[in-house]
Amino acid sequence: MSLTALIRERRSIRKFNDVPVSQGLVFELLEQAERLYDHAEKVSLRYIYAGTPDSRNRLVDYMMEPMTASRLGKLIPDKMLGIFKKRFVDIPAHVIVIAETAPDRRRSDQNYADVCSIIQNFQLLGWERRLGMLWDTESIIQNEIFFKRIGIGEGERFVGILHIGYFDKTPKGRARTLAEKKWTVFQG
């Protein structure tokens, strides 16, 4: 498959089947994704892998904790919370991606952008192997409670959680805004 076709056909997957995802495969694809990203400066990042039933349960509890502690979250029926939890616990693998920050903003932003590029490479490499992913950055998990629980330390920045699994059906593509509609010519 050509790179253009691969990029065009890749989709975010929200519904996974129950086929296990090997930790070794995830590690191999992350290593390949890092090697494909060629940049003069070293990219500083780390991953937290949750692929066992216990680790997935704990991760989902950490994800839900800020939501259930909120005033609005306390109104959500237990049955609904159970459905939410099961949906995420049943996903075969999760990878939390954390970027190192730097004393100056430019270097911090550059490292964050580099890490995002690696994640994109990882998603494309996974797609080649029929491995689907969803890059999750929902605002509900963007909070200090969750960050503390997963062990984000001083000098680190949350990039997202990749929910990973095999899938049975490829979602339809959605309409994209053409680049020319976002195009402005600078008049200086």
TrEMBL record:
Q: Where is the signal peptide?
A: none
Q: What InterPro entries does its record include?
A: NAD(P)H_nitroreductase, Nitroreductase, Nitroreductase-like
Which residue range or ranges hold the Nitroreductase domain? 7-166
Question: Recorded GO terms, molecular function?
Answer: oxidoreductase activity
Judging by the UniProt lineage, the source's domain of life is Bacteria
Under SUPFAM superfamilies, the record lists: FMN-dependent nitroreductase-like (SSF55469)
Q: What is this protein called?
A: Nitroreductase domain-containing protein
What is the native source organism of this protein?
Paenibacillus monticola
